[in-house]
Design a protein that fits this description.
Helix content of chain A: 25-40%
Largest interface: A-B, 19 and 19 residues
Number of domains of chain A: 1
Distance between the termini of chain A: 29 Å
Shape of chain A: globular
InterPro entries (chains A, B): Thioredoxin-like_sf (IPR036249)
Radius of gyration of chain A: 11 Å
Structural class of chain A: alpha+beta
Number of strands of chain A: 4
Protein name (chains A, B): Thioredoxin family protein
Oligomer: homodimer
CATH superfamily of chain A: Glutaredoxin
Strand order of the largest sheet of chain A: 2-1-3-4
Chain lengths: 77, 77
């Protein structure tokens, strides 16, 4: 995995964090996944260790939980 | 402010986040401030809206709280 992956759920906190991260890291270096829309990827996020969104998974596999938009449980709805 | 500023307090969570962020953003684009060692800068961090460390303040002035190492109150000691 050479790109970071940014998981979000469309929440306002997520949008701000996404814009800031893309500005810092560069859009070509980040894949964006909206687990609010694509619920089939929630389990993938959980397997990576994500507890809340927005979260960035780095190329090293570390999870950076950024601010707090919603828990994974909230996204499951 | 054209650089981001990364505030931390030397905690293990802080160290991991620092290494990851520097890898993503580039060391030349981030200033590092250890408010555990340099307590005179705690009030500056609070003024920027930082509630816990590690936290990254972007060039736009947005605060990204990353994971959770310690609250500012904890750092005050």
């Amino acid at each position: 995995m050479s790109k970071s992956v940014f998981y979000h759920a469309g929440c306002p906190v997520c949008v701000t964090a996404e814009q800031e991260l893309i500005g810092l890291v560069g859009a070509t270096n980040v894949s964006i996944v909206n687990i609010g829309e694509d619920k089939s990827r929630i389990s993938e996020a959980e397997d990576l260790g994500i507890k809340s969104v927005p979260a960035l998974v780095t190329p090293n596999g570390n999870v950076l939980h950024i601010n707090y938009g919603a828990s994974i449980e909230d996204v499951k709805g």
